[in-house]
């Protein structure tokens, strides 16, 4: 398992490089630069100042998605903004592959990852997690007429996951490499399910609901794969930022802001 994760991380390092050099992302890169420059100018006027560079993967509604104006919106950007406000910092959002987030933290390309990221002991060897702000459940999406009804029924099937997610880790461990197909996002994995290329998708329950709503003929199984805690992550050893963010998050938790932000997007 450790080896597998290390391989994944190594792969994603390459992906980070590819992302920076990829023409398709040049707009985002330019936007980011422009935003940073503005922020630098503004920083001169703020007492504490500084820019909090948040990395995320905006394919994961309602935690983060891209709106019609190409802005990254959702629970994580809102929480990060509230944290940045408390710290007197500007927030800059950098959208990247999910499995590039941890390498980007290590390489100082971002300061914090806010991405519905599950607290996991192996990840905790690479990054430091903040306090948890939400929980997620690994859900199983199948076609409405599927014979898959339980987790056990996934055996011998082809399951789609987002690369580097906990869904990927569990399915790879439980079903074996041959039964897992990795996609750049849950959106693309769900598309493959609709097209009949795979038998199920394992992904966190809230985005799963959004994907099922956006497509026809899919359902989420009642069975829950695992329950997980979400937290933000900073570079391993960056205790200065970790402490500041944790303090801000504790305050936002205590005064009800965190619950309020989540309730704006998730209506139970
Ligand atoms: N909670 C899962 C994990 O940590 C999935 C997170 C995916 N997040 C995203 N923004 N695409 O692995």
In short:
It is built from 9 helices and 12 strands. The protein is α/β, with parallel strands linked by helices and 268 residues long.
Describe the structure.
With 268 residues, the chain is an alpha/beta fold. The protein has nine helices and twelve strands. It has helices spanning 2-21, 26-43, 75-87, 101-106, 166-175, 186-194, 205-214, 239-254, 257-265; strands at 51-56, 59-60, 64-66, 72-73, 90-95, 112-113, 127-143, 159-162, 180-183, 200-204, 218-220, 227-235. The strands form two sheets. Strands 1, 5, 6, 7, 8, 9, 10, 11 and 12 form a nine-stranded mixed beta sheet that branches. Strands 2-3-4 form a three-stranded antiparallel beta sheet, with helices on one face. Strand 8, helix 5 (166-175) and strand 9 (180-183) form a beta-alpha-beta unit. Helix 3 packs across helix 8 (239-254) and helix 3 packs antiparallel against helix 9. The radius of gyration is 19 Å and the shape is globular.
